[in-house]
Structures are given as C-alpha cells and as structure tokens.
Amino acid sequence: MATIVIMPKQGLMMEEGTITSWLKKEGEAVTVGEPLFEMETDKLTITMDAEASGTLLKIIHPEGDMVPITQPIAVLGQPGEDISVLLGGGAAPAKAAAPAEAVPAQAAEAPAAPAVERAPGERVFSSPRARLRSEENGVDIAAVPGSGPEGLVIERDVNAYMVNKPAVTPLAASLAKAQGVDLSGLTGTGRGGKITTTDLPGAVPVAAPAAQEAPAAVQQMASVQQTRGTHTEKMSGMRKAISRNMLASKETNAQTNHRIKVDMTAAIALRKQYKDLGIKVSYNDIIVRACAKALADMPIVNASVDGDDIMYHDYVNVGTAVSVPGGLIVPVIKDADIVGLSGIAVRSAELIEKARDGKLADADYHGGTFTVSSLGMFDLDDFVAIINPPESAILAVGKIAKTPVVVTDEVGEDAIVIKSMCALCLSYDHRIIDGAEAAKFLQKVKNYLQNPVLLI
C-alpha cells in the first residue's frame, strides 16, 4: 500500500519548509531510516529520513518548492502500484504556493470589496496582521475599506480586497503608484502570476539617442545604463521568519533603551587567566555570565508578557545571536545562572559550531528568556538591538576600545587615563520593565564585569 510523505513539522513555530534537495530519484528504492530529502525551515537546514520502505513513485514537490507543514510532498509504494487515486483525490495538490503569495480559502469565499476613497494624508488604522498581509502582496492599505471596530482594517479586509486585484510585488506596486500605472490590465510573469517591475509599461530601457556622436566615455556610460536594472531573490525561510518576528516585536513591545559604558580591564585580565590555564573563554561568555547573574538578581527583566499577565521564569536561559549565511539564529544557553563561566564557554562553543553547520536541534534555539547580541567584532562602537519575542529585553554589545577616561584619585585630583571601555545598550519592553529597573539591571551587569571575581 502506498505511503504519502508529508512536509514534517520541526519546531513549535514552523509553518512551512523549503525542499532544498531530494536524495533519491523517482523509481529508486527507499529503506526506512535512510536519508530521503533535505529541507530548510525558518531556523536551519535538516536532513529527513524515510519513515517507510518502498520505491519513490512520485515526487510531488521538486527542489526549491516551499510547502506548508503536513502537505504531501511525495509518494512511496511498490513498483507499478496505481497511485492515481492519491494524486487525483485531493491528497496531493499539484503545487502548494508559498503563503506570502497565496490567498487563504476564506478570502476566496469573501465578497469582493470595492476600493475606498480616503482624503490625502488621512490616517489609516489597521491591525499588524493586515499591514503584514498588505506589504507581502503589494496592496495599498489606504485603499482597503475596514470592517473592524471604528473602521479598523483587519486581515480579512485585505484578503477580501485582493480577490479582484492582481497579485503584485511590493516594489512593482510602489513604482506603479508613483508612475500612475493602472495594474488591472497587466499580466504578471512572476511566480504565481505576480506582476513584477519587468511587467510594468516602459520596463525595457530605451537606447540613448545619438550615442554614436557622444564621446567614448559618454557612450560607455550610456551602454552601462542600458544594462543596469533590478533583480529579485526569493526570501529564505529563515529571512521570512526574521521579518515576521522583528515586525511583531516592534508592533507589540513598548520598546525603549538605556546605554552604559563599562571598564573591561578586569574582564580582560580574567580572560587571560583562563587562557593561561588552557581554558578558552570569550568576552561574550563573560558578558553572558554577567547578564545571567543580573537576571537572577532581577526576575522582572527575565520575565515575559502573556496577555494581561506577567510570566516569571524560574530559569535563566540566555540566547546569543549568531550570524549564519542568509540571516541569524539565536541558540540558547540553558541555566546560564548556575552552570558557571566555564560551563557557559563550553556550551557556547558547541552551539555556535552547530549553528554554523546547520545542525541545531529544535531544543537548542527555543526557551530563551534574554538575549545577548554582540557586534564588536565588526568594529561597531554601539548599536540598538530589537527584542526577540517573547523575551522582554536584549543587550547589544559594542567593541572593546582603548578610550581616554577621567578618573579621580584618593585626594580628589582628576587625571586622564587610558582604559578598555565597552558600550552596552539594553533594549527593554516598557510594558513590564520600568526605566529605573532597566538602569539598575545595567548597573548590576557593569558591577559584575568590573568585579569579575563575582562571576566565578
């Protein structure tokens, strides 16, 4: 009996996956437990093993397809077995469009909504999901009539508006609006029939007149201008997840930030002591440890907002932002307040290696209560980071740099000395963390870093 292979769900937040490689061809034998295909989720690339034995009779979704979870992607069975019922009975759709390009079923059943005329500059009230849906599909949300409370535009309104509107990329929609182009009569050549910039009238560059009479440099410039244009690349699952999460963070959190400068002289000496003992400890490990101690001291910074409730966590799990090809990922060091500095160093090195090799497990990047993001290696003095939901705070760490600092001696005399300083910026959710509490947290982190004997 034939077996349907579905897009598996890897992680609580996964909604779709991209098939990056089929490791078997149609007609080849497959053994249970044998690698069958590779897929990319919003966090990592993973190899999936076959859950049944048989022959790969049909690949429904080829490499490169983005498929919602639980949707059929292939059929296993016996050679010559009739699978037409499976393929024709709705169990295996011909191709599932990416959610960003698909109009949900409820939208297809909704009556088409006429465009609404609003006064120039009139403010449009809309929900975050409605704005995200309109941006994904190139819809001018100012033209969408709202059916929510007091005319609020909600996601259902955008879906209904799109029923009789051509699908268009945001860039093409922006250019069309600027040029006054009516999109209703255009045919899209993009994926899923979307109208792209190349479909707009006048998209083909026109040769510069009398170029043969111009100087050689001008002719060369005209030639270059004729060949310059734009190109598009489809967002990876990871990049789409980053986009969703960061937008959700800015929309839901009352985010603000505090800054503080820390003398890292003692922390540098501590790192050298560990190095002399043959133990590899990074500055980021020391900062993570300092944050973990401060979080244990101040549970409110380690908490999360859950509707109208504040959820306090009995554990301290610190995530560290790691840059990987195509985006970034935040592996989590569990129980960072009790494993000690050497334990953090070992666990951090393991997670960074797994993240860059695409071998992180689901448990490795879930459950964080706080995040540390360091960009000092890129020579940044300081920066502001966006909170990683559902956490309530994130610490941005700049470079350690030798800086002139004014100090006062025991007799009250001022002097200028050179110290290794580092700027820290705490972004926090003002819904539950007040400014004074955020300042106290930074003071605690500073105290731990300037007195690192407390971290051991």
Give the count of structural domains. Answer: 3
Radius of gyration: 28 Å
Q: Biggest sheet, strands in spatial order?
A: 9-18-17-16-12-15
Task: Name the beta content range.
Answer: 15-25%
Q: What is the ordering of alpha helices and beta strands?
A: EEEEEEEEHHHHHHHEHHEEEEEEHEEEH
Largest sheet: 6 strands, mixed
Q: How many beta-strand runs?
A: 18
**Average pLDDT reading:** 80
Structural class: alpha+beta
Give the distance, in angstroms, between the N- and C-terminal Cα atoms: 61 Å
CATH topology of the largest domain: Chloramphenicol Acetyltransferase
Fourth CATH level, the homologous superfamily of the largest domain:
Chloramphenicol acetyltransferase-like domain
Question: What is the C-level CATH assignment of the largest domain?
Answer: Alpha Beta
Count of separate DSSP helical elements: 11
Low-pLDDT windows of residues: 89-113, 204-212
What is the correct CATH architecture of the largest domain?
2-Layer Sandwich
The 3D shape can be described as globular
Task: Describe the overall structure.
There is one protein chain. The protein is an alpha+beta fold. The chain folds into three domains: 3-88, RNA polymerase II/Efflux pump adaptor protein, barrel-sandwich hybrid domain (OB fold (Dihydrolipoamide Acetyltransferase, E2P), Beta Barrel), CATH 2.40.50.100; 105-199, Irregular (Dihydrolipoamide Transferase), CATH 4.10.320.10; 252-455, Chloramphenicol acetyltransferase-like domain (Chloramphenicol Acetyltransferase), CATH 3.30.559.10. It has helices spanning 84-88, 105-109, 128-136, 155-162, 170-179, 216-227, 237-252, 265-276, 283-297, 340-356, 435-450, and strands at residues 3-6, 16-22, 29-30, 35-40, 45-49, 54-59, 66-68, 72-77, 255-263, 304-306, 309-311, 318-320, 322-324, 327-329, 332-333, 370-374, 393-408, 414-429. The strands form five sheets. It has a six-stranded mixed sheet. The chain has a four-stranded antiparallel sheet with strand order 1-8-6-3, with no helix packed on it. The model is unreliable at 89-113 and 204-212 (pLDDT under 50).
